[in-house]
Each structure stands twice: as C-alpha cells, then as structure tokens.
Design a protein that fits this description.
By secondary structure, the protein is an all-alpha fold. It contains one helix and no strands. The radius of gyration is 38 Å and the shape is rod-shaped.
Length: 92
C-alpha cells in the first residue's frame, strides 16, 4: 500500500509539473501570437510606405526628365540666338 501511495504521489507530481509546463507553453504561444500580429501590422505599414515612396520617386524622375528636356530646349534656343548675333550673358 505504501508503494502504491508513493507511486500515486509521484504521478501526481508529474501531472503537476506537466500542467505547469503546459501553462508556460500556453503563455509563450500567446506571446508569440501577439508578436506575430504586431509584425504583420508592421509589414503592412511598411508595404504601404514602400508603395508611397515608389510613387514619389516616379514623380521625381518624371519632373527631372521634364526639367532636363526644358534645359536642352533652352540651350538650343540660346545657341540659335547666338548664331543670329544676339549677345547673351553666356557669350560675354
């Protein structure tokens, strides 16, 4: 009977240890789920920022291209005026 009682006590301690470990693992799982949700929200925010930056970059590239074309056009006009004898600050 004493042996049986010791065996039951031992099993009871094992169950208690297992329950404690289960509680710890459950807590870790809940923490991990929260961190996953935070990470997913951050990824979504960063994807939105990336899209906005890509749009801004496209607009800047177009503006640069337009400005560069206007500069080339103005240089051609200046050269033509100089060929026609019109003096400019550039030819002084």
């Amino acid at each position: 009977m004493k042996s049986l009682n010791e065996n039951v006590m031992s099993k009871g301690e094992g169950v208690g240890d297992t329950r404690g470990r289960l509680d710890q693992v459950s807590g870790d799982l809940n923490t991990a789920r929260g961190e996953k949700e935070t990470a997913e929200a951050q990824v979504a925010r960063l994807i939105g920022q990336k899209a906005a930056l890509e749009k801004d970059l496209g607009e800047v590239r177009k503006e640069y291209s337009d400005t560069k074309q206007r500069l080339l056009d103005m240089q051609l006009v200046m050269e033509e005026l100089e060929r026609q004898g019109v003096r400019s600050a550039r030819s002084s």
